[in-house]
Amino acid sequence: MRAAENGRLDDTDTGAPTMEQHRIDEILARPLSRELLARDVTRLAYVAGDGTPRNVPISFTWNGSQVVLCTTKNAPKLRSLRERPAVALTIDTEVHPPKILLIRGRAELDVVDGIPDEFLQMNGSYKMTAEQRVEWEAEVRSLYDGMVRIVVTPTWVKLIDFETTLPSPVEELMLQRAERERG
Questions:
Q1: How many Å apart are CA 88 and CA 102, to the nearest integer?
Q2: Which residues contact 82 (CB under 8 A, 6 or more apart)?
Q3: pLDDT digits over 105-153, tens only?
Q4: What is the per-residue DSSP string for 119-169?
Q5: What percentage of the chain reaches a pLDDT higher than 90?
Q6: pTM of the predicted model, to two decimals?
Q7: Cα–Cα distance, 149 to 45 (Å, whole number)
């Protein structure tokens, strides 16, 4: 672990709360990160009002610097996010070896009238016929009078591809094994 210039910890492997912005930008600019950020669903982890953890799948879009999620104005998670805005996101694949992008940040809530453009964009990649898309959008517009945009600016990221990067505990075990084999 090393101290960043601003005095905060900067270490992607220790779970430190923040990283230097240039490291975040570098990791998120990688082709694999961009591929994962173009997916449909992330898992949003947060602490609920009763103090227990929650992890919910939710559609998202990446605007180039922030992850934007949209939800109903009456979603139970909103009260929890107002009280405890620290969140973690996981975006991953379903193949072996998995590709995983971990993001931590703070949720900022933005109540909007109508349907946010991001909500329509993020749901546009699902396989729908043109007719299904028209029906879906009409249903959404008739159901919601507004939504809440949950905007997460990354303060920490880690990309795991199991080829060039591994989960930190696995890397540690591999180093320990190599030391045993040398000894």
A1: 7
A2: 109
A3: 999 999 999 999 889 887 655 678 889 888 988 999 999 999 999 999 9
A4: HHHHTTTS---HHHHHHHHHHHHHH-SEEEEEEEEEEEEEEE-SSS---HH
A5: 70
A6: 0.84
A7: 16
CA separation for the pair 177, 95 (Å, rounded):
27
Q: Where are the alpha helices (H) located in the chain, listed in sequence order?
A: 21-29, 31-37, 76-83, 117-122, 130-143, 168-182
Sign of the dihedral through C-alpha 74, 77, 80, 81: negative
φ, ψ of residue 163 to 5 degrees: the values are: -120, -55
Phi-psi region for residue 10, left (φ > 0), alpha (ψ -120 to 50) or beta? Answer: beta
Please state, rounded to an integer, the average pLDDT across all residues of the chain: 88
CA-CA distance, 116 to 149, in Å (whole number)? Answer: 8
Residue 39 is classified by DSSP as S
State how beta strands 86-92 and 41-47 pair.
antiparallel
